[in-house]
Structure formats: structure tokens, C-alpha cells
Design a protein that fits this description.
Blueprint: E1 11-15, H1 17-23, H2 27-40, H3 54-60, H4 68-81, E2 84-86, E3 95-97, E4 102-106, H5 112-124
Antiparallel strand pairs: 1-4, 2-3
Length: 135
């Protein structure tokens, strides 16, 4: 998922497909995992890249409403699933997200074949259905 959909050299959030399916019913866990991944990649700085991907923004919404205790509980559940490792049970900075689960890569670092398929899929998508006014 592109961080900035209008930038050619945007960071891309690369998810393992099974992880997204596994966490789709756990918005607190997916928000926490994405937030930790962004922190690990250094993207949460005030001068970091601006987000323009609506889906990633939706995924991150719960992190703004979770208490510190709820974030710790989500981290514990993510660690139990094997998605991350905790070096210290009380320190969120001592967490390492498994790069096979989710990672941040530059769009230009993706394989050319994948980029071609991705661009072709985006170009062939007709967009959302346009509602027709009733007569």
C-alpha cells in the first residue's frame, strides 16, 4: 500500500496477505502493528512523509483512541501471534516487527515485474461505481 499515492518514490507498506486477513477483525491490533512498523522505519517524525492513502489512514485511526494499556495488550496479542518480538515487556520501544509480516520499502525498490503488474491493475480498475440518477 503506497503511503503517498501521488508520489513516485513513496514508501510502500508491504503486508503479508495472510496477516491482513488474520487481523481484519482486530482494528486495534492492525493499527498497533502498522504504528510500530512506521515507528521502526522512522516514518513517525514530524518531518516524515505525509500520508495520502485513505486505507492506511483508516487502519491507523484506532491508535489515536487506544489507551496505553490497550496498546500494550495489543502488542502482547501480536507477540503471541508471532508478528513481533518484545525485548522488554514494559517498553514499546523494545519491540521488533517481523519483516516477513509487514515492512516499509521504497516504491522504486520493488521488483520491476511486480510494479508492472501493480500499475496495470491500477490502470484497469474502473473506479467506484457512479450512481445513476433515477428518472
Amino acid at each position: 500500500m503506497e503511503w503517498d499515492v501521488d508520489a513516485a518514490d513513496t514508501p510502500v507498506v508491504s503486508w503479508h496477505p495472510e496477516v491482513v486477513r488474520d487481523l481484519c477483525d482486530s482494528p486495534d491490533e492492525i493499527a498497533t502493528l502498522l504504528w510500530l512498523t512506521l515507528a521502526q522505519a522512522g516514518m513517525l517524525r514530524t518531518d516524515g512523509p505525509s500520508l495520502s492513502n485513505f486505507v492506511l489512514g483508516l487502519m491507523l485511526i484506532p491508535i489515536h483512541y487506544l489507551s496505553a494499556q490497550e496498546v500494550h495488550e495489543a502488542v502482547d496479542r501480536l507477540a503471541a501471534r508471532g508478528y513481533l518480538r518484545r525485548m522488554d515487556s514494559n517498553d514499546l520501544n523494545a519491540v521488533s516487527v517481523d519483516l516477513n509480516v509487514v515492512q516499509i520499502v521504497k516504491r522504486r525498490e520493488l521488483e520491476p515485474r511486480l510494479l508492472m503488474q501493480w500499475n496495470a491493475a491500477k490502470a484497469s480498475w474502473p473506479g467506484p461505481p457512479v450512481p445513476h440518477p433515477e428518472n
